[in-house]
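Quick one:
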Amino acid sequence: MKRSICALLAALLLFGAASAAALPETYLAACRVEGETTGGVTFAVTQAAYDGAVLTLEVLLTPNDEDTALMDNQVELPPEDSWFLQEKETAAALGDRVLGVVCDICGLTDEKGGNLAMEYRCTTARRGRSMTYTFEVPVDSAFGEAQVELYFGVNEDLGFRFEQDACLLLRVPLLALVPLTAD
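Output:
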């Protein structure tokens, strides 16, 4: 069911020309991941841009109820790790329930199915009870469309098993605007 919802929401993705700063139209695709005892999390792609060298994607993760705060569970750390404990404490101060979340790129191909570079940088940031994941992927001289497969996961026990998960396939045009020069 949740994969069907994600597929349906992915169909809402709008297409347009990209520029170095941002897209003239906002690309929006959303996926909702729900658990049996949680309200779940909505993952929304809020920005997609390509400047001819770097594809940038921003994903906003928002809890589906006002009693929940999110924390990054992207990297497996022991439960006694100081960073992990600090993140858990910060999230717990914002909500009665804390959910661990993960967002990652699990596939990036060109429109013909050829693999594009899979080296990328991911930056996470807290926005109150929500989180953002910003991906910067070097993609040199690509044209056409990139197919980006994003993986989303939610866990209730802040472990590193993501039994509540989903994938979302985005198609992002790789049309960098080139400035015109006068002769």
